[in-house]
Amino acid sequence: MKAAVMRGKQKLVIEDIPTPEPGPNQVLVKIGYSALCGSDVHRFQYGMANDGSVLGHEYIGEVVQTGSDVTRLKPGDRIVGGGGAPPVGTMMPVYPNDRYSAMTVGLETTRIGGFAEYIAMDEWRPLLIPEGVSDELAVLAEPASIAVHAVRTSKFKVGDSAVVMGAGPIGLLIMQVLKAAGADQVIVSEPAEARVNAARALGADLVLNPIEEDVVARVLELSGGPGVPVAFDAAAAKPTFQQGMEMVQRGGQLLVVSMAWEDVDLKTVDWIGREVEMKAAYGSQPIDWQTVLNLMERGQLSEESMVTAESFIGWDDMQSSMERLMKPDEHVQLVLVCD
Questions:
Q1: Into how many domains does the chain fold?
Q2: What DSSP element (H or E) covers 256?
Q3: Whole-model pTM above 0.85?
Q4: What are 308-328's pLDDT values in tens digits?
Q5: Residue 96's pLDDT band (boundaries 50, 70, 90)?
Q6: Is the residue at 300 inside a domain?
Q7: How far apart are CA 46 and CA 321, in angstroms?
Q8: Is 60 helix (H, G, I), strand (E, B) or coil?
């Protein structure tokens, strides 16, 4: 089968590798779409993937073969590539160890992920795509589960106003989840024009440009002075951590869902006196995936302005696309067509 294989730092090579054979409790999935995630780009950019690895974890596809003991899925089923709960009695640790690092995870093995034509999965892992949910929307299920997890584990309450810094895929999905969850006002901070336009199209109440104006001062003005109850850092830009801590109200919360791979600004004297807090959210749980599929089925999440005709790329575009996403100023989401 065809796959995009890591062959060193910032080098992807399209190769033919063996098509996996599903085990007794596994299914073989023909991948249709596989979205390019920021974490994949970071591993590409910083050389944090083993030689021979196939990245990709945001994918949808169709079951084409089942193992002898599979009972839940059948050929022809449309699935998202994750979100299932492990069998009763199976203990699945949330993280491999107590010193888990999001930077080095996966370096112990050479994994085969979603930038390939086929993937073998344990039967319990994938979830069925609901009828009426398009492939173009369903391919956002994994990043949407991260957005749901971030909102669900934050201090956000129905009726709160919130700020989302960064209008990449995660930020745009957090914005939509907040709106679906009853936010009074969602303010987005984003400098890139394509992402600004996407935020507006998807229902942001206000989009601020952090290059052209003082975002913290503007948020304080809009809140009447105290700041917002919760802000979400989905940008991992150099100033956003500090901005988030400054813009929340006394006792408020900055929820960090982005991963900064380089140093960020931090000046505690500006906000320590208000006893604000920072909380990190990482990954997602089965409940988050199921919530996403429910929201998609109800029409409360949209791919509009995120997955467009310009989003789709072919195998020969993978290297250049990963390079472009290292500085994503013109694209919101890129999706590999694996057919």
A1: 2
A2: strand 248-256
A3: yes
A4: 999 999 999 999 999 999 886
A5: low
A6: no
A7: 16
A8: strand
